[in-house]
Design brief:
This protein is of the alpha+beta class. The protein has two domains: 188 residues, 2-Layer Sandwich (Fructose-1,6-Bisphosphatase, Chain A, domain 1); 125 residues, D-Maltodextrin-Binding Protein, domain 2, CATH 3.40.190.80. It is built from eight helices and 15 strands. The N and C termini lie far apart (56 Å). The model has no long low-confidence stretch (mean pLDDT 93). Bound molecules: 2,5-anhydro-1,6-di-O-phosphono-D-glucitol and manganese (II) ion (MN) (2 copies).
Length: 334
């Protein structure tokens, strides 16, 4: 008889040693992320039927209109974690200020930063959505962390990953060395290990960018994207454009098949759109651990020193050699 696939909880227990200093508490935290994924996936599956599409009428701290599902997804993260005992602070793209959880202190030594729903423009048209998360460890045990203490470089993340709500629901994360992907088996409500030790191709054949912004891009970025449209000597084909409007889904495709995702800086908006602490850092950790790269165009994402909680950053992420070529164009070396 074949072996039954590993469930997320069993995998975490079996791999606690390789999960870099991971404790039971930390393992439970990842299991709770999985629970958030199941709850949100359930809402998304029924979204068209239960009047949770459309806007709330509010604007978030980023100045963006809030979809009902953004608010529901944020609440789900907060509800699952506020009495969990695993984290002492929650910070989200959708909340102006972090939430401190004194009731979890001093037990909860982790800080969780997240984008509760990524790709919100896809909610009303049944397209893929995601969520990204970043886990940091508090340095102090004598008091709750301050907002400033949440602003850490991506290299300090102890774990990071994303949930993807596509044709199936997935949890992809990294702790320690490897990147692992789990797919939710809806029949039994368990995540099963489906992608072990993900490694990215060094170069891909796909690029993802919102080219509607082409005329706002700096010259080097334009020249790089133009270069992808000329036939490659090796394959005789140009790169294929694939952009879903959901960063998590686009990066997931690239993580598995190679290529490059760009949300670059613009001439009048040099920091681009995506948020460093909730989106760029967690995805950069996953991609680097799978052998890829993530850059602002000028420097490594994981080494960007955050100045603000909701800081934006240009993001160019994907296969190592694709990202290096993009950097060469952006820095005027190609
Ligand atoms: P969010 O829904 O969390 O605000 O993120 C949307 C992001 C990202 O998912 C996507 O790649 C990008 O914004 C899409 O933006 P454009 O519509 O400007 O392409
Ligand atoms: Mn997002
Ligand atoms: Mn979001």
């Amino acid at each position: 008889m074949g072996q039954f696939p590993l469930t997320l909880s069993r995998f975490i227990i079996q791999n606690q040693d390789s999960h870099q200093g991971a404790t039971e508490e930390f393992s439970s935290l990842l299991t709770q992320i999985g629970l958030v994924g199941k709850l949100i996936a359930q809402d998304l599956r029924r979204a068209g039927l239960i009047n949770i599409l459309g806007m709330t009428g509010d604007t978030n701290v980023q100045g963006e209109t809030v979809k009902k599902l953004d608010a529901i997804a944020n609440d789900t993260f907060v509800k699952v974690f506020q009495h969990s005992g695993f984290v002492c602070v929650l910070a989200s793209e959708e909340m102006e200020k972090p939430i401190s959880l004194p009731g979890n202190w001093p037990h909860g030594k982790y800080m969780l930063l997240f984008d509760p729903l990524d790709g919100s423009s896809n909610t009303d048209c049944n397209m893929p959505l995601g969520a990204s998360f970043s886990i940091l460890k508090c340095d102090r045990t004598d008091r709750l962390p301050t907002e400033e203490e949440l602003m850490r470089k991506g290299t300090e993340q102890v774990a990071a990953g994303y949930l993807l709500y596509g044709s199936s629901t997935m949890l992809v994360y990294t702790v320690g060395q490897g990147v692992y992907g789990f797919t939710l088996e809806p029949g039994i409500g368990e995540y099963l290990l489906s992608h072990e030790q993900i490694r990215m191709p060094e170069r891909g054949r796909v690029y993802a960018a919102n080219e509607g912004n082409y005329h706002k891009w700096p010259a080097g970025t334009k020249k790089y994207v133009d270069s992808l449209k000329t036939s490659d000597k090796a394959t005789g084909r140009p790169y294929s454009g694939r952009y879903s409007g959901c960063l998590v889904a686009d990066v997931h495709r690239i993580l598995l098949g190679g290529g490059i995702y760009l949300y670059p800086g613009e001439v009048d908006k040099p920091d681009g759109k995506l948020r460093l602490l909730y989106e760029a850092n967690p995805l950069a950790l996953v991609v680097e651990r799978a052998g890829g790269k993530a850059t602002t165009g000028m420097s490594r994402i994981l080494e960007v020193e955050p100045k603000k909680l909701h800081q934006r950053v240009p993001l160019i992420i994907g296969s190592r050699r694709d990202v290096e070529t993009a950097e060469a164009f952006i820095q005027g070396r190609a």
